[in-house]
Amino acid sequence: MRVLVVEDERKTASFIRKALEAEGFAADVCANGNDALAAARATPFDAIVLDIMLPGRDGLSVLKQLRERRNPTPVLLLSARGEVNERIDGLNAGADDYLPKPFVIAELVARVRALGRRGSDAKSPVLRVADLTLDTVTRRASRGGHVIELTAREYRLLEFLMLSAGRICGRMAILEKVWDYDFDPGSNLVDVNIKRLREKIDHDFEPKLLHTVRGLGYVMKEPS
What we know:
Elements: E1 2-6, H1 10-22, E2 26-30, H2 33-42, E3 47-51, H3 59-68, E4 75-79, H4 84-92, E5 97-100, H5 105-122, E6 126-129, E7 132-135, E8 140-143, E9 146-148, H6 152-163, H7 171-179, H8 189-201, E10 210-213, E11 217-220
Parallel strand pairs: 1-2, 1-3, 3-4, 4-5
Antiparallel strand pairs: 6-7, 7-8, 8-9, 10-11
């Protein structure tokens, strides 16, 4: 599971991140609402831990923006205030769960794990963009009825791009998700693998689905 933690208190954010990583999760941290929205657009997270009290754009505003953009990622709201009205506002805005501060870290981890299972159960095992399909159970890709043979790395790259369909995927985000570690940003590793994948899924087909966004990264989408 990949989890986005949105918390402006550094010690609390570090505490949550370490606890999640100790349980085998990958955790990214943002300290404000705008960065959280940008991260949610760039990466398909399995769950979001979102503090309500944030500098600038608060957590409820972030949550409303996510739902308006039809981002279905399960959200666990955190707040130092445990008022009933605030919980109701959060749930009405689209939150999936609520945990007041101070909390027991084991409970937070358990709630995040439950949200991840819930989100996973709701996802279709077959990803689709136009006539390109990817079965995440059999790992079989096809386009226009033609089976596309993929290496393990190409499969992970295609899965990430299709999960992020319509959103720009930066090179560093691709490296972290597909290769699981930070890499020299000057490397052409992503570009080389994108070229190979494009040859397989786009070269003999129309319309083209894998597009380069100059200076930003790549996006999988149907032409408008």
